[in-house]
Amino acid sequence: MDSRFIRVTKGSDRTWIVLRGPRSISLLRFAIKSHAVAYARAVSQAGKLTLFVDDKHGTAIRQSAASLTYPKILS
Fold first, then answer.
1. Confidence of residue 74 (pLDDT cuts 50, 70, 90)
2. pTM metric for this prediction
3. Which of 1, 5, 19, 65 would bridge 50 by S-S if both were Cys, CB 3.0 to 4.6 A apart?
4. Residues 55, 34, 62, CA angle at the centre, nearest 5°?
5. b (16+ CB within 10 A) / e for 17-29
């Protein structure tokens, strides 16, 4: 992975964590994955960072930051 990246991964407490860079600096935690992905896409787009989102097996998959999509309901 590039050193300038954002990653969305599942935490041990079942929350979705948005991490930045190789040191895995935690930016925010979300209860819902789509909320974490939306936030990570916005940060990635603004900072021109590579975006990775973990799949169900925990493998980081590169995503496009250009297609900003947000959930309809933020609860």
1. low
2. 0.81
3. 5
4. 40
5. bbbbeeeeeeeee
